[in-house]
Amino acid sequence: MKRQPKNNLKRILFLIWLPCLLLPVFLGGCAGSGAKSREDIEYGNPFYGHVRYLPENQAEKRLSEQDDKLTAEKMSAQQLERLGDGLLRKANAAGAYAKYEQSLAKEPGNTRVQVKMARAMILGRFYEDACKLLKTLIDHKPDSALAWEVMGIAYFEKGDYSQARSHFNKASSLDANRWQVYNYQGQIHDIENEHGLAAQAYRKAISVKPRYGILHNNLGVSYALAGRHEQAVKAFKRAVRFNYTQVKVFNNLGASLAALGRYNQAFEAFISGVGEARAYNNIGCMYMIGGNYEAAIQSFEKAIAITPKFYTVAYSNLKKAQRAIR
């Protein structure tokens, strides 16, 4: 594989999809610029609700929906906690915090709920407040692996990867089954271009939760960033097999297949994720990265033919390919 196309691919490969927040990168153009940051990588973080369809979370959701019918005065501390959990899964930081606060009023000193309150603070980007609360908890209960883990998440979200790594290491030393710790450690390694160590961390997470598709997606990301696309394809396919079917995994799969020159398979993967018109745009971008401008032009033209009124991005990409071929 030529080095330059691979480097171009690394810049855009995984900036694929943030549900409800960003459009797919392929719909905004074919190539990004600048240094890679963690925002450039499409991971699945269970903390942000990507595992809401897991059976245990579905059962918890049903209980939460039942609790919704009660007034706060009539609810137990546990019911209020479940409502907070439901709001946290919906990324409602303020609502979750309020429910956890009500739960603690009925059952003061519940460490589990206090940690969840810190999670709500992190979601609301109140990182310093979350760290203060977690430090107090750790001072009183230094063997709480969960508190160390969530404090690591706070530092991770804050962008302080050194502190995050330190707290994650402490959490895993207290409890070797902290799979989310390994997941975050993998992300830190990828951010720092330590893809071999990242893959090791994801494999540790998978050893604890082998059927969590998000972990296989993240492992695939690490392989692909290292240029190990055959292994990346296998990991992305495992993610799908374990019911992780978000748009990003299909786009990740398509990008790695294209990097291997398997464009027909890549196109089918893109279709599974974003539909035919966007799939033609995506595969056109992959052709352009590989230097096949004629195939790129044909793909962009097909994307435009399918949705001529709205697909201005494919038109823009078409012009880029035409300029390149000239």
General form = elongated
Top CATH class of the largest domain: Mainly Alpha
Helix percentage = 55-70%
Q: What is the assembly state of the chains in this entry?
A: single chain
Structural class based on helices, strands and sheet pairing: mainly alpha
Strand content: under 5%
Ranges where pLDDT stays below 50 over 5 or more residues in a row are: 1-28, 31-53
- H and E string: HHHHHHHHHHHHHHHHH
User: What does the average pLDDT come to?
Assistant: 83
User: Might you state the CATH topology name of the largest domain?
Assistant: Serine Threonine Protein Phosphatase 5, Tetratricopeptide repeat
Count up the helices.
17
The end-to-end distance, rounded to whole angstroms, is 24 Å
**Strand segment count:** 0
Tell me the CATH architecture of the largest domain: Alpha Horseshoe
Assigned CATH superfamily of the largest domain: Tetratricopeptide repeat domain
Radius of gyration: 22 Å
Main beta sheet strand tally, sense and closure: none
Number of self-contained structural domains:
4
In terms of topology, how is this protein built?
Blueprint: H1 3-12, H2 55-67, H3 77-89, H4 93-106, H5 111-123, H6 127-140, H7 145-158, H8 161-174, H9 179-191, H10 195-208, H11 213-225, H12 229-241, H13 247-259, H14 263-274, H15 276-289, H16 293-306, H17 312-325
Helix pairs in contact: 2-3, 3-4, 3-5, 4-5, 5-6, 5-7, 6-7, 7-8, 7-9, 8-9, 9-10, 9-11, 10-11, 11-12, 11-13, 12-13, 13-14, 13-15, 14-15, 15-16, 15-17, 16-17
Tags for this model:
326 residues; mainly alpha; Serine Threonine Protein Phosphatase 5, Tetratricopeptide repeat; disordered N terminus
